[in-house]
Amino acid sequence: MRDRISGTQPGVSSHPGSGYFTHPFLVTAMAAFLFAAVPITYGWNDPASAGPQPRTLAVLGDSYSSGEGNPPFDSLAPRCRRSSQAWPRLLGGMGSGVTVSLFAACSGATTGALHESFKGEKPQLAQLRALGRAPDVVTITIGGNDAGFGRVIFSCYAWRCFWDGNDRRERDLVTKELPGVLSANYTAVKAAAPHSRIIVVGYPYIFPDNQLNNICTWLTNRERRQLTRLNRQLDRVIRKAASDAGVEFVSTDRVLRGHEICTPDPWVAPVNLFGPTRDLSAHPTMHGQQAIAEAVQRHLAMDSW
């Protein structure tokens, strides 16, 4: 009997000295059982991991974060004109796992709105500090209203961009006064949310690069160059201030390329001095909001959360 058991038979594997034999089917079945029963733990960044973990986002700043230019707006705070399709809210539908836990951005906000009540709302930093749980990410667009950029655009449309023909005053404000103001305020945001990623989002270029693409009769080639230069200087100052404060920066300068204001297919609302669309002027529309959201999403995807 011993010889018959230890001898090799078709479909049977022997184990010398073990005193038993195992059929290959049993081996396969046992391995499948053990594999299913024992959990396998992957690393945080392992591509086999589940989808993005839920992350919370606090949104600070001005109309370029509130979604001005793309109605309808929230009815609970109509003066801040927060769009239901603002780019921060679009992030959640882009596979980023982001949900907005605080939407404090408000149309017309300057850096002062971070520390003082604005349009009947508490200071934005106070709202940030009051969150029960610190957000994973804080984004902010700020500085355009401090620089009076909107006022300059309306001046261009009504008469001329710089009524005295000289844009040095605006450029000096942007390059000499604004850097310190922005850096100090970015540092204040970081202090209010010390365990969050702080991301400064730049402004997109909203005027065409060359006169051939300009179909607006109210914007001369000289004025277009002046506005383009001011837009770029503002963005450079914001980038540098973010670096000085030790926070992240996302560039959106080229997201509207070919679709700037005054082009045949703009993703920016046209300038209007009167009526209900006045406040929408020179702000990204739906396509523009989507383009900004995609730029921010790419930045978030570059780093491990």
Write structural notes for this entry:
The protein has two domains: 2-37, no CATH class; 55-302, SGNH hydrolase (Rossmann fold). The chain is an alpha/beta fold and 305 residues long. It has nine helices and seven strands. The chain has a five-stranded parallel sheet with strand order 4-3-5-6-7, sandwiched between helices. Strands 1-2 form a two-stranded antiparallel ribbon. It comes from Frankia casuarinae (strain DSM 45818 / CECT 9043 / HFP020203 / CcI3). The chain crosses the membrane at residues 21-44. One of its GO terms (molecular function) is triacylglycerol lipase activity. One of its GO terms (biological process) is triglyceride catabolic process.
Helix and strand topology:
Layout: H1 2-6, E1 13-14, E2 21-22, H2 24-37, E3 55-61, H3 63-66, H4 87-90, E4 98-103, H5 124-129, E5 137-141, H6 149-158, H7 168-192, E6 197-201, H8 221-245, E7 248-250, H9 286-302
Parallel strand pairs: 3-4, 3-5, 5-6, 6-7
Antiparallel strand pairs: 1-2
Helix pairs in contact: 6-8, 7-8
